[in-house]
Amino acid sequence: MFDALFVMALGAIVLGAALGYAAVRFRVEGDPLVEKIDAILPQTQCGQCGFPGCKPYAQAVAKGEAEINQCPPGGEEGIHKLADLLGREFKPLSAEHGIEKPKAVALIDEQTCIGCTLCIQACPVDAIVGAAKQMHTVIAGQCTGCELCLPPCPVNCISMEPIPESVENWKWKYPVIKLVAAQEVAR
Amino acid sequence: MNNSPYFLKPASVQSVMLRVLLALLPGIAVYVWFFGAAVLVQIALASVTALLAEAAMLKLRGKPVMMFLGDGSALVTAWLIALTFPPIAPWWLTVVGVLSAIVVAKHLYGGLGQNPFNPAMVAFALMIVAYPSLMSQWPAVGFTDFLPQWHAIFGPRQLDAITMATPLDALRTALHTADARATVAGVLGSQATFGNIGGKGWEWVAAGYFIGGIYLLQQRIITWHMPAAFLATLLVVSSGFALFDPTRFVGPSFHLFTGGAMLGAFFIVTDPVSGCTTPRGKLIFAAGIALLTWIIRTFGAYPDGIAFAVLLMNIAAPLIDMNTQPPVFGHKRKGDGRP
Amino acid sequence: MSALRQLFRFNGGVKPAYHKEASTTLPIAVAPAPTRLVIPLHQSIGGPPRPLVTTGDRVLKGQRIGGADGNVSSAVHASTSGTVLGVEMRLMPHTSGLSALCVVIEPDGRDEWMERQPFDFHAATPTATRDYLRDAGVVGLGGAVFPSHLKLNAGKQGKLDTLVLNGAECEPFITCDDALMRERADALLKGAAIMRDMLAATRVLVGIEDNKPEAIAAMEAAAARTGDDSIQVVAVPTRYPAGGAKQLIRVLTGIEVPHGERSTDHGVQCFNVGTAHAIYEAIALGQPLISRIITVAGNVGQARNYEVLFGTSMRDLIAPCAPLPDTDRIIMGGPMMGFLMPGDDVPVVKATNCVLVGSRALFPPPPPEMPCIRCGECAKACPADLQPFEMYWFSRARMFGKAQEYHLFDCIECGCCAYVCPSRIPLVDYYRFAKSEIWAREVDKEAADQARERYEFRLLREEREKQEKAAKLAAKTAAGREKAAAALAEAEKPARTPEEEAKHALIAAALERAKAQKAQVQPENTGDLSPEQQAEIAAIEARRAEIREQAKPHLRQDD
After folding, report:
1. Which residue does chain A place closest to C454, by CA atoms?
2. Which of A103, C20, C130, C173 is buried most deeply by CB count within 10 Å?
């Protein structure tokens, strides 16, 4: 009886010590979960999730304060990835946070722009260049398509242009197996 | 319109399966010669059951029935079941065996190409666990009278006159009896079951399967890895133990030419779906089956161990594959640039 | 010079029916002069060239119409003299059926060359020679169209052991390299000698599949005429894909160049024989790459090799070959790796080695796909020693990470696996799908990483500015300290304070002023400008217009 207790206690002490040592020895700097969530998020920095950026949203998700379905630019695929990472149930994109749209970039109509710099201040990734009373332009390659520059523009000269499919970014489609058609041919 | 390649080699699953069936014919012919036409009855029974079960399952799963029925894979499973089950097994045993193979082991796992276990061996293992005595009654060699065999299959069963234990079974029973003086040589010399090499008649059936196996190799349907590894391992292990203690362990020729060894080496172990696919993996996989077969035959409670050995190695196959990936072009070790 | 040398072998490979005889009965012909040329600007790997001409310009044959965009790019030239009808979006010879920017030229029929001057590469620095070849538009003519000047770089050691010339031409139907080697062996070997000198290579091995005895004989004779015993012609066993660069290097030298490594670092470089000929023309004759030899074969009355100007419509090209009435498709390349064209009115480009006319009888639709039975035939046939069925499995399940673990990107898409598959699975389609998905994801990931970095930097900068502002205020006066606190609070307050309202009013006023100004005067910063500046602005405007053109949703692709 006491032998058994003794053995169990000893086991607990040894294992506890090992775990404690491992916790110190192999400590991971930073919060890896936030980093992992942040890596899945599209970094649009649009704030549609209700947080001031992707990182804050990642932190909220990690803490369990936010749902995983609040990121419209990440879309269904992003939600699936978050669900896989966090072991949570998949949920369709929450409608109140927006809808999934094809990726687009902002385009400033340079004839209308008055050079007010408001959009430059609004852009979360500094993708708009220009100076006061000078025409502004969007660096298309850096634009995340967050649409945050649209509301501040006093002259509504910014529009969102969907990125067109080109020979360079065209993707091979998933091979569709046309069973019925193939059978007809076989006959 | 499809994309390149626009040229395809004239090959199909159907032609692969039909050639496997063709390769089984020499073995079947010898089998019928020694054990009677009951073998053919079993093959017919199993084939019809398998095709019906396959059609029903395809229909239920919403797949094009005629296209998949024609692939011949169900027939291969059915024939292997008919050839591993006793020829005088009652008809329902064969039917239940085939159903468990086609319905459970194949279609419930997703159908052709998706089954982790060899369907024929699932059927054999299930039936030998459920009906050990029925699965051990073989017709005596040379008693090829059709009528008693017909009755054995479809009733009324009167078996005493026509049955006989298989050589593996007979040897195991003799060695495991209380008689401490029983030796391998003594047992082999005392009973009519045993022939010059393996079991009487069995050795010739094995030779028939061997010829079929050579045909499969020649047709490049199977590679040499699995049969070679299987037979070599069985040879080495049984030789080693027979040299160590010839009174307790039977020699390699007996192991290779009785039971399902040859059928297994060329037709069962080589099932591509449930087995390993890399060259080294195939060697390990087949060697593992041979080792387990020898262990089960020698120390186990069942007469032949191939079915259990195959199922056990089926479980290990993905792991073996993962760890035996062949080197990719250009990623070989240094100094490995020679032809 | 064919020496008995030890050859090596690659694993796998297949032996499809070759169908090469039909197009080798007649010598190379010059394709009939086209009535219109549509020359795509982007014909090579790398950045798309910038257009150098505009509508209405008269161009001479060989005149540069697209300038290389950076070093990883290659120039494009007018294939004949004529007038530029426009720089516009036209249907590309690409499976997608999408359009890209092309220069449309109406030939004047005079075929007037620009001034041509041989390039003395012995006197020039290697960099100058490479720049010259870039501007001459020389790219790999084996089908990959990788800019050749980038490959003519001896790598880390500064010299090479072997220069491999690829004349294997393993794809069925295609005989353009065969015809070139038979008829232009001397010029081709002169090009090879130039490449050898640039790469400081010790020897040149010309690998030709042994089903082309005439080409081998012609090349051997030409090699003997050079009197240069560093050039050797080697017959290699006929087995598809012996013409894959990696496979040919392996066969000739025993070296396996892994995916993602430069072959020059292994002491070997490989060029197509057509590229060697193009380099000869560029250096010795001063002619940029404006045409190539193309095999027209398949479902035609008379298959033949043609010397074709880039930009010629495929429809015009196949017309003299009398395509049979049941023709239902045009394939660019061979039947194993070729690409289906969206129609026959697409231009011939530098990548076009063969225009294969197809029909249902010639290339019957594949039988229905069956499940994979893991028979391993594909792995036996794979020349890259891959496990195609595993890659298929994961590509099909969209598990791209796993597919990459099985070395998806080592796949050369040769089609051997799909060729032998008894289940008739379009394996290569799955790999193409998986690869393009992975590429798209990598582009997205890169963009996201960049956005994250820029966003974090912006936060940092805002914080810094806030503090600087506060510090400045604090430094001013003692009372300033309170102000600083107020300023800090101010900076943190959300938008739309009365101050901001005032700003908006100002903006509205500015807008009014701008509107008024726009009607009469130019913007003030473009007031008095030098002619150069004005020209620059005009160029920028032109470029802007072009970008706008490209950005337009592809409504125009069907014109």
Report:
1. A125
2. C173
